Amino acid sequence: MPSLDFEPPKYARVVLELRRRIEEGQYPPGSMLPSESQLVREFAVGRTTVVRALQMLQQDGWIVREHGRGSFVKGRPASEREVTRPGLAVLDQPETRDGVSLVQVGTVPAPSPVVAVLGLGEGASLVMRRWVSTRDGVPSELVTCWFPPELAYGTDLGSDSPLPVGVRAHLRSVRQLRIDHIAERLTARLPDADEPTLLQVGSSDPVLSILATAHDATDAALFAVEVVMPGTLHELEDVYSVPD
Question: Which top-rank group of organisms is this from (predicted)?
């Protein structure tokens, strides 16, 4: 796993909060959002960050920006394009499903990137769950979840028995925990440790790594999950609008 520290971009927090306010009716359709200067003060970020957040909201159809006037709410887009979200998909995947094999459960030292995204101290230990998903008999994903011990306490996350429901559903049922949003980072790298064996790839074959962090509504990081995929079996494709 790469050793680079990672934090979700600041503009993501602004986007998520403004979307939440629009959905809850605080900013109804047709209303004007606070000015850029007001948002800069409220979120304690730079103007560039606020502008980026507003551009993303406009691109996704939540608002319309009018030069010299401000940003006006359109409301939730009528139809939001379905996008594959690897971090969320694996958290909804039962470990008892065909093609899923639980390969490791235990308490381990947290890797540096996980320490960074969860805001932990060096040397912290986490509860880890790791499983391999296969497609047509070939390993397609290696999934590793890291949970703080206090979150895993009283759950089956430390059990070596496969979960009959996804991690997200299990936490919601046992801990009444709701995941509000997930931040993901994609990295292309070479496999390390036991990844070549588990994914049946060569040590020089590239893999795609997605490190996802689950957050609650206050933006606090709850736990982390990494999805590692053989580069030869996966490709990324996206289609998006370009603002004027």
Answer: Bacteria
Q: Are 91 and 168 in contact (CB under 8 A)?
A: yes
Tell me what the pLDDT averaged over the chain comes to: 87
Task: List Cα–Cα distances, 238 to 15, 82, 222, 241, in angstroms.
Answer: 20, 11, 28, 10
Query: DSSP labels for 70-107?
Result: EEEE--S-SSPPP---HHHHHHT--TTSTTEEEEEEEE
Q: How many CB atoms lie within 10 A of CB 166?
A: 18
- pLDDT tens, position by position, 100-157: 999 999 999 999 999 999 999 888 999 999 999 988 788 989 999 999 999 999 999 9
Helix (H) or strand (E) holding 182: strand 181-189
Beta-carbon contacts of residue 207 (< 8 Å; ≥ 6 apart): 188, 189, 190, 191, 195, 199, 201, 228, 229, 230, 231
Domains present along the chain, CATH in parentheses: 10-73 (1.10.10.10), 86-230 (3.40.1410.10)
The enclosing H or E element of 61 equals: none
Task: Choose from 4-8, 48-52, 77-81 the range with maximum mean pLDDT.
Answer: 48-52
Query: Which two tokens mark 31?
Result: 């209303």
